[in-house]
Amino acid sequence: MVAPSIRKRRPIPYSDEQLEGGRGILRVWSGAVTARDVIAANADSFAREDWTKVEYVIADFTGATTVQATADEIRQISFAEVRHAMSFPHLVIAVVAPTDIIFGLARMWQVFAGATGWTLRVCRSRDEAEGWVRVLRSGHPQTPP
After folding, report:
1. CATH number for the domain running over 14-138
2. CA angle, corner 16, sides to 69 and 136, nearest 5?
């Protein structure tokens, strides 16, 4: 008898970097990303990070070659975040979405995740996201260029 093959799940295509002594998290996505990847990464992060210190997250999808998610999956991601938002209600999240498809998916997430009460923005570049976070954290209103 041959033992059934064991399917190994591919590694989740992201890396996290703590910024400013843990006050910020930079999550960089790469390759093919699925909603299941985002759900698993968020679950891991919610369990691992010290969210009492975290003030902002920048999720950068610039390196993602594809992002596959249905509206129901994006809603599922958002609902999980709504449950966690009660524990840390003042979070700022910027999503870097350089392509039209990723931008549209991120905007859908932003609408659903609005129930968290977090301050959310979808940006086209990391520079834009970092600038927006910096302005928000400084307490100064952003002035047009």
Report:
1. 3.30.750.24
2. 85
